[in-house]
C-alpha cells in the first residue's frame, strides 16, 4: 500500500521485499508511483512513435534500439516500484529485441505485431494502475506474439519465456 494505492496482480499483492522494506520505513510513497506512471506514459508513447517508424521502414535499426531501450526502462522502473510482474514481462520483450539486434535479424510482420501488442498491453496495464490503483496483468496474448517471433528465428536457443534459474546464492532458503 502506497498512499492508498494497492498494487495487485491476479488478486495477489506483488511488492518486492525491497519495496516492502521501503514502505515499512515510509521511504516510498505515492509520489514514486506517480513518477513511475508519468514515465511509463512517456515511454509507451515513444514505443508507439518508434513502432510507426519501423512500420514504414523495417530496416530502421535506431528505431528498433529505441523500442528495446523503452522496454528496458519499463523493466527497471517497474521493478523499482515493486511492479515485479510488469518488470518481468517488459524484460521478456526486451530480450527478444536484444536478440534481433545482436543477430542483426530483420523486423518482420511478427516483430511489428509483438511490439504493437506489448505497447497496447502496457498502455492498458498502466492506465488500469493509474485509474484503479491496481492491475491484473495477463500476458498470454503477448506471449503468443513473442512465440511467433521466436518461431521465425533459427532454433537452438532457449525461449525468452523460459524462466532462468536463480543465480547462485539467490535460491530461496529451505524451510527450517
3D structure, described in words:
Strand 1 and strand 2 form a beta hairpin. The chain contains six helices and two strands. Helix 5 runs antiparallel to helix 6 (140-152). The protein has helices at 17-24, 30-56, 61-80, 84-102, 109-132, 140-152; strands at residues 8-9, 12-13. It has a two-stranded antiparallel ribbon with strand order 1-2. The chain has 176 residues and is an all-alpha fold.
State the main characteristics.
single chain, 176 residues, mainly alpha, two-stranded antiparallel sheet, 2 strands, disordered N terminus
Quick overview:
The protein has helices at 17-24, 30-56, 61-80, 84-102, 109-132, 140-152, and strands at residues 8-9, 12-13. It has 176 residues and is mainly α.
Major sheet: order of its strands? 1-2
Helix content: 55-70%
Which shape, going by the Cα principal axes?
A: globular
Largest sheet: 2 strands, antiparallel
Structural class: mainly alpha
What radius of gyration results from the CA coordinates?
17 Å
Order of helices and strands: EEHHHHHH
- How many strand segments? 2
- Range of strand content: under 5%
- What is the helix tally? 6
| Poorly predicted sequence stretches spanning 5 or more consecutive residues | 1-14
Give the N-terminus to C-terminus distance in angstroms.
30 Å
Mean pLDDT: 82
